[in-house]
Amino acid sequence: xxxxxxxxxxxxxxxxxxxxxxxxxxxxxxxxxxxxxxxxxxxxxxxxxxxxxxxxxxxxxxxxxxxxxxxxxxxxxxxxxxxxxxxxxxxxxxxxxxxxxxxxxxxxxxxxxxxxxxxxxxxxxxxxxxxxxxxxxxxxxxxxxxxxxxxxxxxxxxxxxxxxxxxxxxxxxxxxxxxxxxxxxxxxxxxxxxxxxxxxxxxxxxxxxxxxxxxxxxxxxxxxxxxxxxxxxxxxxxxxxxxxxxxxxxxxxxxxxxxxxxxxxxxxxxxxxxxxxxxxxxxxxxxxxxxxxxxxxxxxxxxxxxxxxxxxxxxxxxxxxxxxxxxxxxxxxxxxxxxxxxxxxxxxxxxxxxxxxxxxxxxxxxxxxxxxxxxxxxxxxxxxxxxxxxxx
Length: 392
What we know:
Shape: globular
Largest sheet: 7 strands, mixed
Helix content: 25-40%
Order of helices and strands: HEEEEEEEHEHHEHEEHEHEHEEHEHH
Oligomer: single chain
Radius of gyration: 23 Å
Low-confidence stretches: 1-8, 359-368
Distance between the termini: 73 Å
Number of strands: 16
Strand content: 15-25%
């Protein structure tokens, strides 16, 4: 009986410690804005030819709450700039940039408006040893490191190093804790001649003597990229051969690493797609080069909302059909990416009687928006067939 009480007491202590850590994280993790850390006159702004793009159709599209601010008659690029800062702290484990004192997360270094507040971030801010890196540095990685964010948010920041003033510098150190397959593939192709990659350890922080801070080129929930960057990316990364523009691609999520957003009647759906000349692809089994070649020759792409659709950045004026497991457009990232690429974008939402205001969400254990977004779902194959018949 005594042992049982001791175990119970231990569990309560652990539970209380976790709760206390969460409370401390919320209280002690603070943010600052980059405009407080430098003089605005010192920033180098990217002047884009097409600053805005008409998007009147968004008024009729059912966006999720976080993306409704994008439902405007036109999409306007964010302020795109670079600026040199001194004595910024870089924390590699969560890829955070911190102000020196007080130690706060620089909100502009995150691709979303949400500040991460978890125990590892708390430890990174207050409990890490700090080493110094002298010279001029830049950091392109961010807190979010999935495939979409690598291609749309992180790598494009390096385009700002093409500024002629930076070309005069003797050396720029690109700080990175680890290289993903995509980074390994694309970095040698796009970084300036005077830049070199410096690998750092994740278990310590680094005080950067001088940091060239580069902003994101797109907005939260939007994959729209400037024409200037897309031309640069195409020149540096695309295959040097004519397009065949013949691939009809269906992206399957059956082997997705996160196991989310599977189409429950995928076989039934693919039977329809097969009749239209589609082939099924498991992108997880393909190299970065193979994915690029596949989408470089694409004619049309069909897939559930997911990072694999980011590969349409390699395509040229194709048809894109995005399928959502919800009754609304969870995140319009690929609509905006398609818009910037001059693709024809179509979408299909779920017919299932489940909405984000549905009171039954608690009962079916989909109470959090993440689990709601990532649930497996059925596709109305008749609607897919009807849409394809109108396109092809």
